[in-house]
């Protein structure tokens, strides 16, 4: 027989109220992790596209335009090296999703690619 003074009524509500902030924070962290991963892949793809364009002998403006068309917004593109071996780095700062994580610093993800210059018709003879 249960005592009338000892009841479980409202315990689910109390437990939910305690766990809800932790679950919300977990969801926000998972979304931020997914965004970091997506931006990393985007930066790597942009570096690959830019290195390939540089190896074909495209102009610096065209290389940067191609990289920015593939890269996540706010990316920085750096092309270095001589014409026969081009290195491209694409960097992007990923800010945390707003709300409870706004105080965290941004994470910089980088994509890099290297391509050897392709011989032209005039140099292959």
pLDDT below 50 for ≥5 consecutive residues: which ranges?
none
Largest sheet: 3 strands, antiparallel
- Rounded to the nearest angstrom, the distance between the terminal CA atoms is 100 Å
Placed side by side, the strands forming the largest sheet appear as 1-2-3
CA-atom Rg in angstroms: 25 Å
Task: Summarize the entry for a quick read.
The protein has 125 residues and is of the alpha+beta class.
Characterization of the model:
- The chain is α+β, with helices and mostly antiparallel strands and about 120 residues long.
- About 45% of the residues lie in helices and about 20% in strands.
- The protein has helices at about 10-55, 60-70; strands spanning about 75-80, 85-95, 105-115.
- A three-stranded antiparallel sheet has the order 1-2-3.
- A hairpin with a 4-residue loop joins strand 1 (about 75-80) and strand 2 (about 85-95).
- Helix 1 (about 10-55) runs antiparallel to helix 2 (about 60-70).
- The longest helix is centred in the N-terminal third of the chain and has 45 residues, at about 10-55.
List keywords for this structure.
three-stranded antiparallel beta sheet; alpha+beta; 125 residues
Blueprint (SSEs and pairs):
Blueprint: H1 11-55, H2 60-70, E1 76-80, E2 85-94, E3 107-116
Antiparallel strand pairs: 1-2, 2-3
Helix pairs in contact: 1-2
